[in-house]
């Protein structure tokens, strides 16, 4: 269990909820959108044929998230990618609760400012149902990973799942939490 102090959760409860209630005219606090979970997905490419590389990426993702990843397997064979059904093709972690809030804080305040040539998150990456997706091209922006200990640069996809009904609600939720969006 994570017992770390969660500044972002406190900010959500004390600052973001009242702002969202005022902006969207919610009458009940349960109508306010909240973040349900964060899903981090990492495709491993040639790691499907190299068990050592798979284990290194598994340890990296575990260090980044604080939770052991699940190995995802191919659902069907694709000859062009040299993938057979059942081969390991990726790693996935679903974060909820305190780990989710810690990861959100780390993404917004530590990781995104370290991304090279970062000009803000794309505000058009919402899925129409209030969920936000973005990708990172390398894992070295996380403080837990150093370039000399990692064998290969590996990107990842991050999906923030919210209870928001519209993209506008989700956008304001993430913006009030401190996510830097492009203008």
Keywords:
single chain; 183 residues; alpha+beta; 50s Ribosomal Protein L5, Chain: A; five-stranded antiparallel β-sheet; 4 helices; 5 strands; 18% strand
What does it look like?
There is one protein chain. By secondary structure, this protein is α+β, with helices and mostly antiparallel strands. The chain has one domain (7-176): 2-Layer Sandwich (50s Ribosomal Protein L5, Chain: A). It contains four helices and five strands, in the order H-E-H-E-E-H-E-E-H. It has a five-stranded antiparallel beta sheet with strand order 2-3-1-5-4. The termini are far apart.
Please, what is the oligomeric state?
A: single chain
| pLDDT < 50 runs, ≥5 residues | none
In whole angstroms, how far apart are the ends?
38 Å
CATH superfamily: Ribosomal protein L5
Q: Briefly, what CATH class?
A: Alpha Beta
Concise synopsis of the structure shown:
With 183 residues, this protein is α+β, with helices and mostly antiparallel strands. The protein has four helices and five strands, in the order αβαββαββα. The chain has one domain (7-176): 50s Ribosomal Protein L5, Chain: A (2-Layer Sandwich), CATH 3.30.1440.10.
């Amino acid at each position: 269990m994570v017992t770390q102090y969660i500044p972002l959760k406190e900010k959500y409860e004390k600052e973001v909820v009242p702002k969202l209630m005022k902006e969207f005219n919610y009458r009940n606090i349960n109508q306010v959108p909240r973040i349900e979970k964060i899903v981090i997905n990492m495709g491993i490419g040639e790691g499907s044929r190299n068990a050592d590389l798979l284990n290194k990426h598994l340890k990296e993702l575990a260090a980044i998230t604080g939770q052991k990843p699940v190995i995802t397997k191919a659902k069907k064979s694709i000859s062009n990618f040299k993938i057979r059904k059942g081969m390991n093709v990726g790693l996935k972690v679903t974060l909820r609760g305190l780990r989710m809030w810690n990861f959100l804080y780390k993404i917004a305040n530590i990781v995104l400012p370290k991304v090279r040539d970062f000009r803000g998150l794309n505000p058009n990456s919402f899925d129409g149902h209030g969920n936000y997706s973005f990708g990172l091209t390398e894992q070295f922006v996380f403080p837990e990973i150093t370039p000399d200990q990692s064998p290969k640069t590996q990107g990842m996809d991050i999906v923030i799942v919210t209870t928001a009904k519209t993209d506008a609600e989700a956008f304001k939720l993430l913006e009030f939490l401190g996510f830097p969006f492009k203008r």
